[in-house]
Amino acid sequence: MDAHGAELVDVVESICGLPVQNPQEEVFSSADLRWTCYGTTERHDMVVLIPFERVDGFIIGECANVEAPTRFHIEKGKKRSPGSLKDYKEDEYLEQKLYWCSFGPEDYGEDGGVLPSRKYRLNTRNRAARPQSMRGCTCRFEVIRLYARPVVALIKYIERRHVNRAGFICHGPLDKDAIGPGAKKTPYLSSNIKQQTMSMIYLGIPEENVLEKHIEGIQRYCGLDEKVMVLASQDVHKLGMIIKRSTHELALDDQASIRMWVEGHKKSIFFYQDSSETDAFILGIQTEWQLQQMIRFGHQSLIAADSTFGIKRLKYPLCTLLVFDSRQHALPVAWVITRSFSKSDVTKWMKALVDRARSIEPGWKASAFMIDDAAADVDPIRDVFACPVMFSLWRIRRTWLRNVIKKCHNSEVRREIFKRLGQLVYSIFNGVNYSVAMEELLEDFVDQTTFLEYFKAHWVPKIDMWLSAMKSLPLASQEASGAIETYHLKLKTALFDDSHLGALRRVDWLVHRLTTEVYSSYWLARYADGSDSFQNVKEEYIASTSWHRALQIPDSSIEFDEKAHLFAKVYSPKDANKIYLVWNPGSEFAFCECAWSLQGNLCKHVIKVNMMCQSSGGYHPSMSLQSLRERLLDLWRRPMDDSISLDIAVAWSYQMLDQIQKYVELNGSKDISSIVNNFPVQWASKGVRTSLGVPSSRISSGKCTNDAVERRNKKRKRLSQLR
């Protein structure tokens, strides 16, 4: 009889009258026993009594379940010594052990996460399963050796079915998602191997290469024989056919199709609001892996937004939230598809996203949120994320450069217009009225009618809003801007493929591309970087940003115009005869004549030249540094002289500078021991020194012991006086 599927008969409140069942078979299972409801009407368990010496036979029988073959490990246990209790209940334990199916719990351990049911580690041979076999199974039972009757064991089933938290079968022959050799047996293939194989197929890697890597992954966990090789080939081919035949159109109507997708992918959605007369359509997508990356790289770090992507070409614009990984590359951790930018709607999905992160990591908090759109409402960010808001120049720089190149055909005119646009932005720090710089720009290039028509129509009406945002918010660095731009370009390449232009107005197509190809590319890149496999993928990922490519250019390849500081020459390390000219060096609005820059991108030559300009002197500091100086000076100017407010401002300023200095020193040091050795020695008071490093529990227990001894001594003294 199934422990949870049986008809509930009368609940017994005592186990004294239960018979001790002793099946004749050497190995038996729960199906061979008669289970009883024990407890109260509100709360009861299915229990059975067997001889304690037959427990091993029961466990072996449960492992041999035809529908879900498995192993059980001891999750936790406790025991008492015989005779240690004077008063005890009938179900009191002498020994108690919790046995858990080795296909559980769900694998939250990728990239260093905490496994929720791995808090206990018993020094036994029957240990917990390896991470590759964790499938979220909740099947578990308790074996209680009774204190009153040590020869009898009470078996209490907590969950008899081999299902996950959602109630679905998660391993064995009945699992529809079973993939790989030995899927119907133990051990189960790891989710990493499955995702690795699917990612390679999505990215178009040839099937023979996919099979080779698939077999390598299997070989790490189990041996290979001819049968395993055949099954591995079949699984790769089957996965390839599934992916090839998969389609984004689950229904002809796009809205109905996206509803069906949402229903089948609830674990990958952090917020969903269907469109109606009063509500706008909002879909927030975040896989479990993306959630882990957000918690790992976003805590006490930066969150950036690539907002309003595809606002002219897609049915709904796409907003991507990014974190910066260990290589300072922009990593997408959430996608939001919506046309609504109202404060109420933005607050909804932002709050849902933060609540999801804090449900896993309660103390999760971002240090700053980086925006790229001056029209964005910063109030929801400050209310929900409770952190400073920064502004990134990458979008305005890229838009201006692309249109200058597209609408101006003379190279000299291009670089001069772009330089003047930079001076327009720099005016917010130079104390110059930007309207004067604007008028001079329009007058000096009056013959560039195509560009001026564009600039007057699209930027003159809103330039005040953009400059005000740059003035009021701290500005992000060039490295951050380059990383966000790299993600933007990769997303553009993946989505605006000519073969899919007919589907741009469907949301289900956008969701399908994001959760398959785009997601797989970043998952595989991070996996390759962390596991030292897929060296070509790893090398391509490392070199994907212009900042990293700039670091590979030696300083000796740079030559400056020492007289007028008009340009800098960058000699190619591979071909000394190839020279790139970077005009307006030292500025975020520097202009290079290389092919990558002529596409409107931030190239490695501009970044390298600007790096050297900041270190050599004689050039204006970067806008991000000027923005920081403005805020520090603002703190200094604000208080009245000789006031307590001035003291507080100075204290905050020096505390901020000290933290920045320590961070820069730590980030630039290759030997952390040299920094630790320079820390000042912190002396504690005499009474505390002896307790430093001692757990508080030991200190408190020691104090209680001393108090008890003192009370006994006082009592003895009083008794001696009475005598």
From TrEMBL:
One Pfam assignment: SWIM
Keyword terms, alphabetized: Metal-binding, Zinc, Zinc-finger
GO molecular function annotations of the record: zinc ion binding
Region Disordered: start-end pairs: 698-723
Domain (SWIM-type) ranges: 577-614
Feature: compositional bias, Basic residues: 712-723
PROSITE patterns associated with the record: ZF_SWIM
Keyword Disulfide bond: no
PANTHER family (UniProt xref): OS09G0309100 PROTEIN, ZINC ION BINDING PROTEIN
Designated name of the protein: SWIM-type domain-containing protein
